[in-house]
Design brief:
Strand content: 15-25%
Distance between the termini: 69 Å
Number of strands: 7
Oligomer: single chain
Mean pLDDT: 81
Length: 267
């Protein structure tokens, strides 16, 4: 956990505490519809006595928004902090009457750091195991379809359209249209959506692509089902979870030939 995350316990408190107070006020006295527009109009232009006050408020608001989102991430892990206790800590410190020493505060934050880290690891492990099982089930079902071929590496492919052009080598640069999906159908990338074919060296992509596209004559369209060990493995990113089996629809449009250097003219 970064130091900023530890600060979220303090900063998010302020935001959450204000929210709690607002909620309680709303429960005590519901706003009258006729006055809603009036209140909004009165609150619209924020005014401050000085530019320093405005800057200070902006710093607090920005920090609170960022750290509140951080606190929400902890909640997603299953860790819920008491808003009342967080508010009490802030209030006591500002009043110079903290119930914890500096050492006790640091120990509590270190314990929080460890718990969050452990919970995140457990969640990631559970997600990875779920993705492994989902991928195995999907590949087993796909393998039973007519025309599906499984290579020695475990790559699965199905010819949708058979082309008649040359097949690329691993060292070639290819021009393709493609769509990438997770096994649940979630699309994470698509040259079709960008309306722009992709061009790249075939030996600089995931190994499932390097192997699979070499099987395609120019003009072909294949569907590839790539196990995680031929894709991104245990590496996760925002659009592709760890240990994901990936499904690609690929059209090989062309093999891009390197430009030949022009011969020097002889005098």
């Amino acid at each position: 956990m970064k130091p900023v995350l530890k600060m979220s316990v303090l900063a998010a408190t302020i935001l959450l505490a204000v929210g709690c107070q607002d909620e309680k006020a709303a429960e005590t006295k519901p706003a009258e519809p006729a006055k809603v527009e009036q209140v909004a109009a009165e609150a619209a232009p924020a005014t401050f006595a000085t530019e320093d006050d405005k800057a200070a408020y902006a710093i607090g608001a920005s920090l609170a928004q960022y750290l509140a989102a951080n606190l929400d991430q902890q909640k997603e892990l299953g860790l819920e902090l008491s808003r009342e206790q967080v508010l009490a800590g802030v209030t006591d410190v500002f009043a110079g009457n903290s119930r914890m020493t500096t050492e006790e505060t640091q120990q509590a934050l270190q314990s929080l750091d460890q718990r969050v880290s452990e919970m995140a690891q457990q969640q990631a492990q559970a997600e990875a195991e779920k993705n492994i099982k989902a991928g195995e089930d999907y590949r087993a079902e796909f393998e039973q379809k007519d025309g599906v071929v499984k290579t020695d590496s475990g790559l699965l492919y199905q010819v949708e359209t058979a082309g008649e052009g040359d097949k690329p080598a691993a060292t070639d640069t290819v021009k393709v249209h493609y769509k990438g999906m997770l096994t649940d159908g979630t699309e994470f990338d698509s040259s079709y959506a960008r309306n722009q074919p992709a061009t790249f060296p075939l030996n600089q992509v995931i190994s499932g692509w390097t192997e699979g596209v070499q099987l395609m004559p120019v003009g072909s369209k294949f569907t590839f089902v790539i196990p995680p060990e031929l894709a991104y493995g245990s590496q996760a990113n925002p659009s592709i979870p760890a240990n994901s089996t990936l499904v690609f629809e690929v059209e090989l449009l062309d093999i891009v030939k390197a430009e030949q250097p022009m011969a020097e003219e002889t005098q």
